[in-house]
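CO-FOLDING WORKSHEET

Operator: S.A.
Ligand of interest: zinc ion
Run index: 377
Mode: holo prediction, single chain
Checklist:
[x] sequence pasted
[x] SMILES validated
[ ] output reviewed
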Amino acid sequence: MRRVAALIGLSLVCGGPVSLAADRALLPTYDLIIEHGRVIDGTGAPWFAGDVGVRAGRVAAIGRLDEATAKRRINAAGRVVAPGFIDMLGQSELTLLVNPHVPSKIFQGITTEITGEGESVAPVNAAIAKEAAPKFEHYGITQDWTDFTGYFARLEKQGIGINIGTYVGATTVREMVVGYADRAASPDELIRMQAIVATAMRQGALGVSTSLEYAPAPYASTEELIALASTAAQFGGIYATHMRSEQESIMASIDETIRIGREAHIPVEIWHLKAGGVGNFGLMPEIVARIDRARAAGVDVGADTYAYPAWNNDLSAFIPPWAHDGGDAKLIERLKDGHAFRHSGRGRGANFGDCLRDERARHCARRRSALGFVLQR
Ligand SMILES: [Zn+2]
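OUTPUT RECEIVED:
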């Protein structure tokens, strides 16, 4: 960089003032003009036809620029030109510590990401840090924060290539107080959990979130979630959710989600709304109708969907919640001990999403072969 600056300086000295003026007249007005696109400017206004002029890496003009000169022009006819997109559910909270430029987002045009799906990057206690240690080791990063203030300070210190916002995850809040056990929170524990949500909201969380298919989240009752969402609502937060089921039990899950919004007086965002599983294809009109009815009745429910047809997940997500009771170490113990799985007295089953949670043998039988393994209990 220094070397380039030196060369430019040299040419200016040699060229003299006359040559400089001539150069300036020949310089194009813009580095780039994106022309003939539909401009959506992010203010909420409808799109309009226009050109966008970029100079020195910044938007310098918006309007009719067909007379202007530019080093480069891009014809965006029939396309949308926008300053950036918001990813309503990304998961870059740790990877952006690995590569702060976050190229996987930038190259998709995403300039803002909201994260924190059920488990959030904060708060952290010793047990959570221990549970998360293999992940941090894998990424080669150090967990040197215990709350959102500390995490955001870390981001500010290193700089990041996108804007980031996060929910406080109800799973994390539960882990902080109840741990990883398959049991209800006591009234006293629930008060402590609400206090954690309040602190997180004061530190900048956008609301409280759930991912109710992933242990220990399923151990939470609807009432527990209403209590946490009520606290977030007091700070203007929203409730965002990966629902308890996106497959066989999706209707009950939609109803639970709407109830949380209604009773906690909080806006709701349903993440990656879908009717998963071949047997559930065709349910979408009824799902949308339920959301519409809730909206008409005054519950502020929104939803988003994947922009792609495929998905992935951790293998542990396919193991039923009861097997996660006590955390990863206990789960691994159970996986190693086939006897415990066969004779735990809770019947026989395998897991692939709801088929196992609902213990519907018909679905399990079909999916067992697809997944290639069977868990017995
Ligand atoms: Zn999810």
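REVIEW:
Residues 117, 211, 242, 271-272 surround zinc ion (CB under 6 Å).
The chain has a mean pLDDT of 84.
[x] output reviewed
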